[in-house]
Amino acid sequence: MRVSAKADYAVRAAAELAAADEGPVKGERLAEAQEIPLQFLEHILLELKHHGIVRARRGAKGGYWLARPADEVTIADVVRAVEGPIADVQSTPPEAIEYRGNSEHLREVWVAVRASLRSVLEEVTLANLVSGELPAVVEELTSQPDAWHASTSTKEMTS
Amino acid sequence: MRVSAKADYAVRAAAELAAADEGPVKGERLAEAQEIPLQFLEHILLELKHHGIVRARRGAKGGYWLARPADEVTIADVVRAVEGPIADVQSTPPEAIEYRGNSEHLREVWVAVRASLRSVLEEVTLANLVSGELPAVVEELTSQPDAWHASTSTKEMTS
DNA sequence: GCACTCCTGACCTAAGCAGTCAGGAAAGTC
DNA sequence: GACTTTCCTGACTGCTTAGGTCAGGAGTGC
Questions:
Q1: Statement: the CB of A83 is under 7 Å from strand D
Q2: Per-10-residue mean pLDDT for chain B, 159 residues long?
Q3: Does the CB of A7 have a partner CB in chain B at under 8 Å?
Q4: What are phi and psi of A56, to 5 degrees?
Q5: Which end of chain B has less Cβ packing within 10 Å, N or C?
Q6: Residue B86 to residues A45, B79, B98, B115: CA-CA distances in angstroms?
Q7: Which residue of B has its CA nearest to A78?
Q8: What is the pLDDT of residues A92-133, one digit of tens each?
């Protein structure tokens, strides 16, 4: 249930590419702009390339650019490219699990979890991200003050 | 962005406890009912105890039971007990991260991601889970057929 | 031919995941 | 008081992932 450094880096690099309106951007510049270790970033960009998110050219005047327009690439695309399926349970998709006994309905819950993640990640495009004009879903979720607190319920006790 | 076996086991064991209406249930029975390795489960139950989710007594007629009524324990409570904070980015809460350059608005996106997870996990109680009467949020999310497919968008190409 | 940049595989350390093993400590029973 | 039952705890293990670094190879442009 956590976002890896890799996914975070990938999205930030992609955002930087989305903002660069002309010509290839070289890895070094992306690394500097977002303060990401260069060599690590290169591996990430390679993965993004293999998944058809970015393209690249070598040599002088080389660099990376988005394979598709920035408003057609969602954050979900980028995250999936580097992390694989979103919201797997025990490394298998939630709809493929059979639960017995009193946890029969747990599958629906995990499916709902995945759906709710998608409702955010698949709605926000890189264009949204750089312009700051985030979709209504996001605005609604972030407008509740609770959303900005580390933990909401404090019913638990430290037995 | 994945659910660990530990979290899955923890919720299932908690569901089993929620369904047992009278007296302590011993670990062995929980392990059998949900097909969880007993020794592993005992560690999990211990963590749940330390977080005040369950209580326990040793000896004959001993076992585990919920510390609070089943309709006051949410899945979020259980998951947090064994996995820690729910949607940390790079092991820090999203609201604590400073983004520069073109990814300035990424923080809002991660906060929205966390909020959307909470909107599911904090709404579903163990009582909901065992009865199958899931909250409206969940019903809405799972009623869309897309929610049951492994992947929705197929815009990407394998470069 | 040379500089530049991406491309790739190998490697590394630390941590986490998913457990198992062995023994100790309370609670109840006889 | 001995004995059984059950939880409690720490140590350990094997494997994978996270988060990188290093060294070199392969296209590209001049």
A1: yes
A2: 96 97 92 97 97 96 96 97 95 94 96 97 97 97 93 46
A3: yes
A4: -150, 155
A5: C
A6: 27, 8, 19, 10
A7: B156
A8: 999 999 999 999 999 999 999 999 999 999 999 999 999 999
B40 touches strand C (CB under 7 A): yes
pLDDT number for residue B157: 38
* Tokens encoding A38: 């260069």
Residue A87: CB atoms within 10 A of its CB come to: 21
A137 min Cα distance to partner chain B (Å): 8
**Minimum-distance CB partner of B147 among A115, A144, A150:** A115
- pLDDT computed for residue B21 by the predictor: 80
Cα A99 to Cα A104: distance, rounded to the nearest angstrom: 5
The residue of chain B with its CA nearest to that of A48 is B159
Unique residue bearing structure tokens 């993965």? A47
For residue range A42-99, list pLDDT tens digits in order.
999 999 999 999 999 999 999 999 999 999 999 999 999 999 999 999 999 999 999 9
Indicate yes or no: strand D within 7 A of the C-beta of B45. Answer: yes
- Residue whose tokens read 């303060």: A35
Residue appearing with tokens 């298998």: A92
* pLDDT attached to residue A155: 46
Q: Which of residues 108-127 of B touch A (CB under 8 A)?
A: 108-122, 124
Residue A37's Cβ-side half-sphere holds a number of Cα atoms within 13 Å equal to 6
Structure tokens at B76: 């979020």
